[in-house]
Amino acid sequence: MWPSWKKSLPSPQPKGVLIKTSLVDYPERVAAAYFLRGCNLRCPYCYNTELVEPSVQDNVQFVSVDEVLSHLKKRANVLTGFVISGGEPLCHPQTVKELILRSRSLGYKIKLDTNGMFPDRLKELLADKDVAPDYIALDVKTSPGRYRELNGQDGEQKILESIKIVSALLPSAREFRTVLYPPLDSAAEIKELASLLPKDARWRFAHFLNGRCLSAAAQSVQAYAETEENALVEIARKKIPGASLR
């Protein structure tokens, strides 16, 4: 089932940041969240710099997969959800598979956060019931034609394919997420994305924070005012009633 993934197996196994208890990362569940290092995008507004740039440490405590699973085992009577995030977790497909198999054996429901740049890996994951996540959150960062601004190459077809894959899931098993970063998300981009997402989508918008960004230029970008954000969400809501601002 997994032969095309083995070439991507990292050595040594990647580490990440563990949030031991979260009330916000998995809808309607008390969860732990594991943010794996490594990402194939360079979103200027990203504030998880220690996950994206290997040279950045920022006194963050990185933990191994075994340490995460030990925590999940200890807290299985309190936690019901486990979130695998990043960075981009599908940069490490074998690690994601291991995390899902082992945490599911402890009784956890699994949520995967992804940027959509690995549609083939996402499709393979969903095709195997043993490792298919229970819930997927797909980031839709801007209109597909602008994805080259995030990774220096054309990600347009990749995000379109991932939108198609995630849209095919039950509405209760998926959501879409967009950070309202002014240079990438104007009314035009929101309208285009609204035309691509399913009408029954949960579409969660987040406020852009310019205090600690991957790009120095992004730190000088003025965030949208609350009224401007609400106006953009209303544009989305005309086609996607489930759009909301977090």
Describe this entry's structure for a reader.
Mean pLDDT is 92; it is low at 1-11. The protein is an alpha/beta fold. The termini are far apart. The protein has eight helices and eight strands.
Chart the SSEs and their pairings.
Blueprint: E1 16-22, E2 31-36, H1 49-52, H2 65-74, E3 81-85, H3 93-104, E4 109-114, H4 119-127, E5 135-139, H5 148-151, H6 156-167, E6 174-180, H7 187-196, E7 203-207, H8 226-237, E8 243-245
Parallel strand pairs: 2-3, 3-4, 4-5, 5-6, 6-7, 7-8
Antiparallel strand pairs: 1-2
Tags for this model:
246 residues; single chain; globular
First CA to last CA: what distance? 38 Å
Contiguous low-pLDDT stretches (5 residues minimum) are 1-11
Shape: globular
The description of the largest β-sheet is: 8 strands, mixed
Kindly report the average pLDDT value. 92
Counting DSSP H or I runs of 4 or more residues, the number of helices is: 8
Work out the helicity level: 25-40%
Spatial strand order of the main sheet: 1-2-3-4-5-6-7-8
Please give the number of β-strands.
8
Write down the secondary-structure element order. EEHHEHEHEHHEHEHE
Radius of gyration computed on alpha carbons: 17 Å
- Bin the strand percentage: 15-25%
Question: Would you kindly provide a brief summary of this structure?
Answer:
It is built from 8 helices and 8 strands. It has helices spanning about 50, 65-75, 95-105, 120-125, 150, 155-165, 185-195, 225-235, and strands spanning about 15-20, 30-35, 80-85, 110-115, 135-140, 175-180, 205, 245.
